[in-house]
Design brief:
Keywords: Signal, TPR repeat. The chain is mainly alpha-helical. Helices cover 79% and strands 0% of the residues. It starts with a helix and ends with a helix.
Length: 311
């Protein structure tokens, strides 16, 4: 009996020890998992703060550390792509956005950023497909169904995706569709010089120079050093026959001699050869730097004048 009793006690003790080891092992794994999760959350929060301070390099490193703790996290991958964009690493950003979409195919932010990058790379067909998907998903998010008309954007909407898709519409000559998108984006960010300028350009392409001029002027009021708006406003002035005003607008963003040369060049393109000749001669007189370029433009102008019997 004593031997049997001793054997039972030994067996029970061994079972308890093994059970305790198993429980301890499970607890250790759970603790490690909790620790990784907490560390990842802390790193993510610190990365966001660094990004807000525009310390994108530091933010990137922290996001990468967070991703190592949770490799298949789409939000972290997306933010890594964002940091690469800010740092000018466009190829790495593209890869991160594509990886994000592999994990979360309907990630609106990743679709928007990838589409914008594709447009910059002149992959128009891919860009249109990607941007259209981003915009449709955003509209569905706002409307919670298939909207029949455009729904007003909110702070989460990818405004620049709407802008980029509008640019593609304008290139295709679908100016009203482009303006619909730009107006939506502008309602959300009314002080965007870029959106105002692009809206002006859409009207310019459509031949509505009065509206184009108004939007370019608004863009300049918002951002006085916005070169593109000044230059495009000068082009509108040329189309309206307001050469002195065009010259003044060009001078806002370029040296005087270049302003004369560019004005003469655009007048040449419009077939206004006599006016072009005057401004090109002014460019030559004002700077030897523009002598050769302006002389070439002037030679073209004189050849065209001769062809129509004007000397």
């Amino acid at each position: 009996m004593n031997k049997l009793h001793h054997s039972l006690i030994t067996t029970l003790f061994a079972a308890l020890v093994l059970s305790g080891c198993s429980a301890s092992s499970n607890l250790s794994r759970q603790t490690d998992a909790m620790t990784n999760q907490q560390q990842g959350q802390a790193l993510f929060a610190q990365a966001e703060l660094a990004a807000q301070r525009e310390d994108y390099g530091k933010a990137l490193l922290m996001y990468i550390e967070a991703l190592n703790l949770k490799p298949d996290d789409a939000p972290t991958l997306y933010n890594i792509g964002q940091m690469h964009m800010y740092l000018g690493n466009s190829k790495l950003a593209e890869r991160a956005f594509k990886q994000t979409l592999t994990l979360a195919p309907d990630h609106i932010g990743a679709l928007a950023q990838l589409g914008i990058w594709q447009l910059k790379e002149r992959n128009s067909a891919e860009a249109e497909s990607t941007l259209t998907r981003a915009v449709i998903l955003d509209q569905q998010r706002l409307h919670q169904s298939e909207p029949d008309t455009w729904v007003t954007l909110d702070a989460q909407s990818p405004v620049m995706a709407y802008n980029a898709l509008a640019v593609l519409y304008d290139v295709r000559g679908q100016h009203q569709q482009a303006r619909d998108l730009l107006q939506l984006a502008l309602a959300q960010t009314p002080d965007s010089a870029l959106l105002l300028s692009n809206l002006g350009y859409s009207f310019y392409l459509d031949g509505n120079f009065v509206q184009a001029s108004q939007y370019y002027q608004q863009a300049i009021n918002v951002q006085p050093n916005f070169h593109r708006a000044w230059a495009n406003l000068g082009l509108v002035n040329i189309r309206q026959g307001q050469y002195s005003r065009a010259l003044q607008n060009f001078k806002q963003v370029m040296p005087e001699e270049q302003a004369y040369n560019d004005l003469g060049y655009f007048l040449k393109l419009e077939g206004r050869y006599e006016e072009a000749s005057y401004f090109l001669q002014q460019a030559i007189e004002k700077s030897p730097k523009y002598y050769e370029l302006a002389q070439e433009n002037l030679a073209d102008v004189r050849m065209n004048l001769a062809s129509v019997g004007i000397h």
